[in-house]
Amino acid sequence: MIRRPALVAAVLVTALAACQTTNTPSATQGGPAGSGQLAAATDDAPPTLGPPPSATPRDDTSPVTLDPTLLAFLPESVNGIPLAESVDEATQALSDESLPRIATSVDAAVAVDTASGNLVYAWVVRLRPDKFSDEIYRQWRDSYDEGACSAAGGATGNAEATIDDRTVFITSCAQGLRAYHTWLQDEGILISASAIGDGKFGELLMDNLRVPS
Rounded to whole angstroms, how far apart are CA atoms 94 and 105? Predict the structure, then answer.
């Protein structure tokens, strides 16, 4: 499946290390060389999500588009830190060959509190009708979490929580990074996020999604 979130995870870990350089040393510090190695390692990892059982033929599948209106599902800010569109990362996702099989559009946003070292990176994906299932959702989570935790010391645990009356899957990584997933089935929207820091930006994001009632 889409491997760009794995690179985002490496950026998150490196960004946290940068935030901590003025405070206490961190095991995640490694400078540009270390972050480059992490990015290369995760980008080369084979995808774990194959095509859906009834994938639309490539010549009948329209390309995924960048859609800033998707960010309306996210809160405007997390703990007072604005969520800003991350065009570069979202645009690079458009080249992923498997994403058009399940999605029509995508966008991404990030909130960074450099003073505290808290940050969250969120993806919003508009799904194709009847192209996403529980099994594909599980594979998406496995692929995303594998990439995220490979850049953050490996996975240490999985949990399922109810946040704002929605089921959220949470994976913890060794270096403090967590991955979050929720599927808004009625809206046809998938939201995945990576967060790091003691401020629980991931939980706050999931708790304040703007979903039409």
Answer: 8
Listed in sequence order, the residues at least 6 apart from 188 whose beta carbon sits closer than 8 Å to its beta carbon are 126, 127, 129, 132
Q: Which residues contact 58 (CB under 8 A, 6 or more apart)?
A: 100
96-143 confidence digits (pLDDT tens): 888 999 999 999 999 999 999 999 999 999 999 989 999 999 999 999
Q: Scanning the structure block, which residue is given the tokens 């979903």?
A: 211
CA distances from 202 to 52, 53, 147, 178 (A): 28, 31, 17, 8
Distance CA 138, CA 211 (A): 22
d(CA 90, CA 64): 11
Beta strands in 67-188 (DSSP E): 77-78, 81-82, 84-85, 103-113, 118-127, 155-163, 166-173, 178-184
CA distance 111 to 104: 25
